[in-house]
Amino acid sequence: MSGLPNGGLNIAHEAVDRHAVGSHRHQVAIRCLDASATPRDFTYLDLWKLTNQFANVLQQLQVAGGDCVFTLLERVPELYITVLGTLKKGSVVCPLFSVYGPEPIRTRLISGNAKVLVTSKRLYENKIEPLRQSLPGLKYILIVDQDQQIPLSCDSFWQLLNRASDHFTISSTKPETPALLHFTSGTTGKPKGVMHVHNAVVAHCASARYALDLQPGDIFWCTADPGWVTGTSYGIIAPLVIGATLLVDEAEFDPMRWCQILQNYRVNVWYTAPTAIRMMMRLGNDLICHYDFSSLRFAASVGEPLNAELVLWGKEAFGTPFHDSWWQTETGAIMIANYARMEIKPGSMGKPLPGVESAVIQRLSESEIKVIDVPEQNGELALRRGWPSMFVGYLDDEERYHRCFINGWYLTGDIVRRDIDGYFWFIGRVDDAIKSAGHLIGPYEIERVLLAQDAVADAGVIGIPDPIINETVKAYVVLNAGYNASNELKCYLHAQTRKALGPAVAPREIEFCDKLPRTCSGKIMRKLLRARALGLPERDLPTLDLNL
Amino acid sequence: MNQKQVKKEILAALLEVAPEIDARTLDHDKNFRDQYPLDSIDFLHFVLNIEKRLDVKILETDYPKLSSLNGSIKYLRAALCL
Question: How far apart are CA A148 and CA A141, in angstroms?
Answer without folding.
Answer: 15
